Amino acid sequence: MPPNSDVIELGPSPDTTDVLCETDAGPKGTASDLSTLKSTDGRKLELVWINIILFIYVHTASLYGIWLMLTTTKWQTDVFAVILFSLASLGITAGAHRLWAHRTYKANVAVRLILLFFNTLAFQDAVYYWARDHRLHHKCTDTDADPYNSKRGWWFAHIGWLCCKKHPDVTAKGKLIDLSDLQRDPLVMFQKKYYLILMPIFCFILPTLVPVYFWGESLSVAWHVPALTRWCLMLNVVWLLNSSGHMHGKRPYDRSISPTSLVFLIWLRYGEGYHNYHHVFPWDYKGAEMGRYSQDLPTILIRIFARLGWAYDLKSVSMDMVRKRVLRTGDGTHPVWGWGDKEHPQEDIDSTTITYKKKVK
Ligand SMILES: [Zn+2]
Ligand SMILES: [Zn+2]
């Protein structure tokens, strides 16, 4: 994340991570197993004022940016800002999240370069650190070792975690996360090494200069709209997943964990709205079920890459596995309970394989 001054240097990379705080559900789900782990020690937060001041400026300037969008900007600037927002979101969802943090698919050099470019546009720290924090979030969800522990409240999970020093458990367990796959990826390591040069160029300087140079936008509008406001809105959408995405919504796949299906993000179609599904099946490249559940921008992009032969080994979860999990641990809000359900989407029915069909005489 932005000025994440508290960078953890890697220790030796052990085979066992010792950070497996999240277990598979028992007969009654995981709630009883994890209730003792999922708490905070209530320690006083040590504020990082430089980040707080930066975020106050960015959010105030973004309010001004929204005002400019409503009153002053040229239409080309608005379109440019939306395009940049979309590309940056893909750099996080299809890139840092699904490709590098979870390894839900593999990709060739071209795809990795494209996604690293998009990712640098988003300025949410280098992929290497983003993936480390995110793996830790999945391993230790809702404990003090979770960088954006939602048990500390909505504000902490949303932005507060970047405004104070890390909990010692985050630092300690973070060192144990295996990042050897990322260390073997020269492109990821290149981005990490040159991040403080690449990030300002791609996230702020080019988004400001392009509108000024190509369609005569004013410098102030170009700085406030496609650079700052676009970045700030993107940050808040991703943060929503850590805050509301662990508090508000249904839990169709596992009622005993905090992640939810977040309608707002599902509606946006930028991906990751099915956060309850994602925490249950984090290796699924779609981050959602088949059919209408997986029609979001990153999934479409990954499929395009796969058609070109640039992405491969896409992992997903069978309908049968999803159904079993829904029946075993879901909260009863999953809209489809089985074959023949009235609300079963036609797309899902069409994409279902039926083998050993009964022979009609
Ligand atoms: Zn994830
Ligand atoms: Zn989560």
Automatic annotation (TrEMBL):
One of the Pfam families matching this protein, by short name: FA_desaturase
Needed co-factor(s): Fe(2+)
Domain of life where this protein originates: Eukaryota
Molecular function, one GO term: iron ion binding
Alphabetical GO biological process terms: unsaturated fatty acid biosynthetic process
Subcellular localization, as worded in the UniProt entry: Membrane
Fatty acid desaturase domain location: 75-282
A Gene Ontology term for the protein's cellular component: endoplasmic reticulum membrane
InterPro entries per record: Acyl-CoA_DS, FA_desaturase_dom, FADS-1_CS
Membrane-spanning parts: 47-67, 79-97, 194-215, 221-241
Membrane-protein topology: Multi-pass membrane protein
Family recorded in the similarity comment: Belongs to the fatty acid desaturase type 1 family.
UniProt-recorded name of the protein: GL22317
Organism, scientific name: Drosophila persimilis
